[in-house]
Write a structure and sequence with these properties.
alpha/beta, 5-stranded parallel sheet, 3-stranded mixed sheet, binds adenine
């Protein structure tokens, strides 16, 4: 998979993909992540990428030209162009699975007060990572990349994510490791029993119970 990220703040990405699982996926050439400063694409002699809004109002608005031209130069037949915006579809694990199967993602990060509405016309999808407003789409794009790359074949063992929270609309069950007793808190007996059927039943029950308590909205789905 190739992921191209369009931003005005490429330095924000320094280090973020240089650790842990994402770094390994890059090193193993399962994914290539490129950061593009769309200011490099502006035809404005002063390198401007924004302007005042028609109709008046506060702040500056990102113009179409640099983003259109940057996307045009990157687009392939299999590209999915995604706009990071708080008014997009709220991001869920199901969408992460779908996107992990794509060949090419182009993520556009807005900034400042907003972007020219016509930029939406070149996007296949608009995604919000939650009902709050960030200063720009950069952090949201990092969240997307992390959640997608870990689901790509071979990046982590499939066993590690089939039981993730949100699969089958359930939260994950609790896990424990050594020691058996820590500060008076004991590991549930069933996990020490070696009875795999019982352990599976216990985990399923705990998943359900936890989802009921914390996220009943998931069970309604
Ligand atoms: N840009 C600003 N806020 C955002 C959000 N919540 N999700 C995605 N992009 C954003």
């Amino acid at each position: 998979m190739t992921i191209d990220i369009l931003t005005l703040f490429p330095n924000m990405y320094q280090g973020i993909f240089d650790e842990s699982i994402i770094k390994r996926a890059i090193d193993e050439k399962r994914v290539e992540i490129n950061i593009h400063n769309f200011r490099d694409y502006t035809l404005d002699p002063h390198k401007k990428v924004d302007d005042t809004p028609y109709g008046g109002g506060a702040g500056m608005v990102l113009t179409c030209q640099p983003i259109f031209d940057c996307v045009k130069s990157l687009r392939r037949e299999d590209s999915i162009v995604i706009l990071m915006t708080p008014d997009g579809e709220v991001y869920k694990q199901k969408r992460a699975y779908e996107l992990s199967k794509c060949g090419h993602l182009i993520l556009i990060c807005g900034h400042y007060e907003g972007f020219d509405e016509r930029i939406r016309s070149i996007c296949d999808m608009e995604i919000s990572i939650g009902d709050y407003v960030l200063t720009g789409g950069e952090l949201a794009s990092m969240v997307l990349v992390d959640s997608i790359v870990r689901l790509m074949p071979g990046v982590i063992e499939e066993d590690s994510h089939v039981n993730d929270s949100f699969n089958n609309n359930l939260l994950d069950y609790p896990t424990y490791t050594k020691p058996r007793v820590y500060e008076g808190m004991e590991v549930p007996e069933v996990l020490l029993s070696g009875d795999h059927k019982k352990i599976e039943e216990y985990r399923r029950e705990m998943s359900l119970q936890r989802t009921k308590e914390r996220r009943p909205d998931l069970l309604e789905k």
